[in-house]
Amino acid sequence: MSIPKKLYNETIRYLMPADFIFFNYEIGAIENILSKVISTGNYDIGFMNGDIWSSIEGFEIDNKDHLYIRCDQKRVILKSVKLSVIEVDGFEILFLRGDMYKEKEIEKIKKNKNFHELDNTCIQHVNLSNKEEIFRCVTAPLFSSMLFPKTFEANSNQIKNLLHLANLNDLILRINNISKSLVKSENNDPEFYNEKGNTCRRIFEQTLKVECYIEGIKFNKPYDKLMLRDLQDLLKNISPENKNKQRIKFGQMLNSASHDGRVVTELVIQVESVFMLMYTCMLYSEVKFKDDMFFYKLKSNILKTAADS
Q: Are 96 and 78 within 8 A, CB to CB?
């Protein structure tokens, strides 16, 4: 038994937000896009903790797909970068996401470049320094920085919220990909649904990590070591009781579906994907509601740009 594919597809489409359109580019196209915007000399870079570095001077991509962006005596480094873009009123806002730098990799950078680690209170990156420059390594595989023109009127909190929306948008697209694979598939192999169940669990774990960032919660373990129960415990003291109950109930469902020996059906994955989409879209709406006038104006400009193109 399962939800009819047409009804399931219409439910997913109904829940999907239509506020922003993010265009995804891989590393090969990033160099051209960055060259175009940075050559103007009018772009700044903002981070998920609210920091803003003024006047990007340049960038380079090495042969290992590491991206370096320079601002005066500061550099940020991302590896295996992905880029998302929104076009607003004649200019582009770029959202950058890199893979996670693990502790061993950071120690190697410190040793090779004679850096020491600064007092780090941020959970999205590590700051290193020598006498000449500050070197920022991203420590979370999320959209953690954005490039925007100086004419773009946004404060630190609005920059943070835009990055939260970029990450939630990415998770929503991943959930949508699961739903598309279910609608297209005629596969009755239990392994197919087991694999989708494991993917659902990973996506929900990352959703809760993004929620921790939104709430300003500091992790008590490395990013890649945090499991579903850890994240539920971190969030339970700052959330309403009904939200905690939602997380616990859904966590139990995900755990049950991802255990070895459990037969996972199409219906289970359909229910999981609908719940995940509802929960992620709820977070999406909560972030927008923090500054609804700013996002209303931004949405209007995006729609105007799309209509003119």
A: yes
Count of other CB atoms within 10 angstroms of residue 241: 8
CA distance 148 to 93: 5
What single letter denotes the amino acid at residue 282?
M
Residue 119 in this model has a pLDDT that exceeds 60: no
Q: 52-53 and 43-47 as β-strands: parallel, antiparallel, unpaired? A: antiparallel
Strand partners, 128: 117, 135
Per-residue pLDDT tens over the stretch 261-301: 567 888 888 888 999 999 999 999 899 888 888 887 887 77
Q: What is the DSSP code (8-state) at residue 6?
A: H
Instruction: Please check the confidence at residue 111 and state whether its pLDDT lies above 60.
Output: yes
Q: In 10 A of CB 70, how many CB atoms?
A: 18
Q: What is the CA radius of gyration of the chain?
A: 20
**C-alpha closest to that of 91 among 270, 304, 277:** 304
